[in-house]
Amino acid sequence: GQSLEQPSEVTAVEGAIVQINCTYQTSGFYGLSWYQQHDGGAPTFLSYNALDGLEETGRFSSFLSRSDSYGYLLLQELQMKDSASYFCAVQRWDYKLSFGAGTTVTVRA
Amino acid sequence: GAGVSQSPSNKVTEKGKDVELRCDPISGHTALYWYRQRLGQGLEFLIYFQGNSAPDKSGLPSDRFSAERTGESVSTLTIQRTQQEDSAVYLCASSFKPQLNTEAFFGQGTRLTVV
Known about the structure:
The complex is a heterodimer. Chain A is mostly beta strands. Helices cover 0% and strands 61% of the residues of chain A. In chain A, the strands form two sheets. In chain A, strands 2, 4, 5, 9, 10 and 11 form a six-stranded mixed β-sheet that branches. A five-stranded antiparallel β-sheet of chain A has the order 1-3-8-7-6, with no helix packed on it. In chain A, a hairpin with a 4-residue loop joins β9 (84-92) and β10. Chain A is globular. Chain B is mainly β. Chain B is 0% helix and 49% strand. In chain B, β4 (31-37) and β5 form a beta hairpin. Chain B starts with a strand and ends with a strand. The mean pLDDT of chain B is 94. Classes of the chains: A mainly beta, B mainly beta. Chain A binds chain B through residues 1, 30-31, 33, 35, 41-45, 48, 50, 87, 91, 94-102, and chain B through 31, 33, 35, 41-43, 45, 48, 50, 55-56, 58, 91, 93, 95, 98-99, 102-109.
């Protein structure tokens, strides 16, 4: 099966930088994705890493180390609207997509 | 359609009744996923389809749960003899040829309440 671990909660102030770590165990790993979900909303795609290294998309960056079965999502210049839950997800070779339990990020003024 | 559509958006049912949840994926998306999300919890994998086939049904919680997909399009998730622990939001997502683009698009979900 698949298992993913990520912190349950993170709190930070506006303008700060937050890093959400994700460690995973799965057979047939294909890639690691990150999704954002606001309260009452549907998850939306943020980023995807299939190869080792850093992917940058505006204020958000995602990193993957396949050898360490580890990745992280970096949120920079935090804004109040970034308060949400963030999920890492592993995609397997057969395209099964499994999610972690999520990290609730609370941004304070 | 423009996005993934799920119906109904809300469903209240009595314990013991059967319910059917519907998902209309984005046209042309080959992969379709069902997840269950309890309040404040993560996304629990239920089942996924590649075309009309379900390679992995291991996430279905019990034999009361079943799902099918036809025409590489619409999917229905059926829960028989509903129990109170089935109360949750059921989310559907679709992806276009996931081997090329891994972004999954989610519907707004069906909020199921079993009373």
